[in-house]
Amino acid sequence: MTTPQPFVLKWGIISTGRIAMDFVKDLLVDPKTRGTTDVGHKIVAVGSRSVESAQKFIKAYAPNEADIKAYGTYNEVYANPNVNAVYIGTPHTLHYENALAALEAGKHVLCEKATTSNAAELKALLKLAKEKKLFFMEALWTRFHPLTLELKRIAEEGTLGDPVVLHADLSADFHIESLPLNHRMLDPKLGGGALLDLGPYPLFWAILALYEHPSNKNARPSSIVGSIVKTPITGVDASTSFTLNFTENLQAQAILSCSMQVPAANFGATIRYKNGNIIVKPPIFRSPAVTVQYYDKPGGDIVREETKAFSYVGGGWHFEADEVARCVRDGKLESDLWGHEKSIIMMEVFDEVSKVPPDGQGNTHMI
Ligand SMILES: NC(=O)C1=CN([C@@H]2O[C@H](COP(=O)(O)OP(=O)(O)OC[C@H]3O[C@@H](n4cnc5c(N)ncnc54)[C@H](OP(=O)(O)O)[C@@H]3O)[C@@H](O)[C@H]2O)C=CC1
Ligand SMILES: O=C1OC[C@@H](O)[C@H](O)[C@H]1O
Q1: Which UniProt keywords apply (predicted)?
Q2: Is 204 in the pocket of ligand 1 (CB under 6 A)?
Q3: Per-residue pLDDT tens digits for 7-46
């Protein structure tokens, strides 16, 4: 009997920055090391604004791969007939034009977070992807990690009851005072600031634990309140906090924050349920371990506590790549795990939070 051959997705890579490097390195990790045998990956083209950068990138991160084309424009990647799917790793505000061009050329798209600068741009991309019957996914890699899959199973198996309050933070010190003004974290033209760069992760946990919880029945956040501290350097948000209420079918609140000027370790995420807690160890984009605590009765003592740790070969970006390959193989236009609706909610929340007036005090609502 012959063993079925894995479906191999042929990738074109857009940009040669930090995350493009991480993603490419993971595409080259042997899928069997993570138990994947049904799909695989091949890099067929890398596009950069400079051909030298594309050549250098291939030499540095994919030295043993044959026949990867190095291009000095992104358009040449979109035009390459061997490319099935395009990975977009440019700064946020370029995602729209890059994804649009890829879709117009008939390519499936995996686009880095934050998917676009605003919800209107994202909706336009999704409309085009549907019209052209192409797969599109936000590269929310955390959704596909084994830890996340296990946490979701535990959270929804019933013992913990409904979620009540979630706290999540992702902050770091980007030393913004030493960055050039055109750095993507500082430049408003590149979508600079903490919210679009770090905010997707605390919000991801709120979407996973509150929005996706079966008791929530897919109800969107009933209200959003945001507050922003801007940096005087370029006026982008340096620290942002936002709360989301889920009150249609739950009585739950998410308290979320991100900052690019916190010189201390993160505290991760805590999800508090009627009958216990889930504690996600930092960093929340790639948590190494999760602790689950169970009360003897609501408001009672913790009588059981379990910690589960997770490890794998590679950086953790290959799990999202496997999802794209499976979806493309199966003719799906969106992922069941991180579909279009969740990316839209994410961008709509960011739109609302960004509306706070210049004094940083905000009180906004989403319908
Ligand atoms: N999923 C994850 O874990 C992570 C995701 N990200 C996301 O990926 C995106 C890129 O982040 P990151 O890799 O850190 O950024 P980098 O600045 O390291 O890389 C961005 C790349 O985009 C290309 N680019 C095109 N136009 C511009 C421009 N005007 N200014 C700067 N670069 C430009 C460049 O590649 P070239 O010169 O080859 O064209 C550049 O190297 C962001 O949206 C970010 O949110 C970032 C880090 C981690
Ligand atoms: O996606 C990300 O995850 C980790 C952060 O350090 C980075 O800035 C961000 O883009």
Answers
A1: Oxidoreductase
A2: no
A3: 999 999 999 999 999 999 999 999 999 999 999 999 999 9
